[in-house]
Amino acid sequence: MKSPKLTAARRRRLPKSKFALPKKRKYPLDTIGRARNALARASQHATPSEKRKIRAAVKKRYPSIKVSKA
């Protein structure tokens, strides 16, 4: 199932609690698809501490997603 397009206006309306890194408002986790995408992007671009935070946020919000330590 495809996530609805996240426009700039929609992203601004999302509460901070819907982001993996709420202080930076990075990696939205409002849908399971975006949560998977956050894991993929984090593995490419995030610092080790950000990766840990993102994995923890995804695991907390979507326990059905398998989150690896790699």
Describe, in plain words, how this protein is organized in 3D.
This protein is mainly alpha-helical. It has one domain. The protein is 49% helix and 9% strand. The protein contains 3 helices and 2 strands; from the N terminus they run αββαα. The chain has helices at 8-13, 32-45, 48-61; strands at residues 19-21, 26-28. It has a two-stranded antiparallel sheet with strand order 1-2. Strand 1 and strand 2 form a beta hairpin. Helix 2 runs antiparallel to helix 3. The longest helix is centred in the middle third of the chain and has 14 residues, at 32-45. The radius of gyration is 11 Å and the shape is globular. The N and C termini lie far apart (26 Å). The model has no long low-confidence stretch (mean pLDDT 93).
Blueprint of the fold:
Elements: H1 8-13, E1 19-21, E2 26-28, H2 32-45, H3 48-61
Antiparallel strand pairs: 1-2
Compact overview of the structure:
The protein is mainly alpha-helical. Helix content is 49%, strand content 9%.
Please tag this protein with its features.
70 residues, mainly alpha, single chain
The proportion of residues forming helix, as a percent range, comes to 40-55%
Strand sequence of the main sheet, in spatial order? 1-2
**CA radius of gyration:** 11 Å
The average pLDDT is: 93
What count of helical segments does DSSP give? 3
Alpha-beta classification: mainly alpha
Order of helices and strands: HEEHH
Measured by DSSP, the beta-strand proportion falls in 5-15%
List segments where confidence is low: pLDDT < 50 over at least 5 consecutive residues. Answer: none
Distance between the termini: 26 Å
Number of domains: 1
Shape: globular
Number of strands: 2
Biggest beta sheet summary: 2 strands, antiparallel
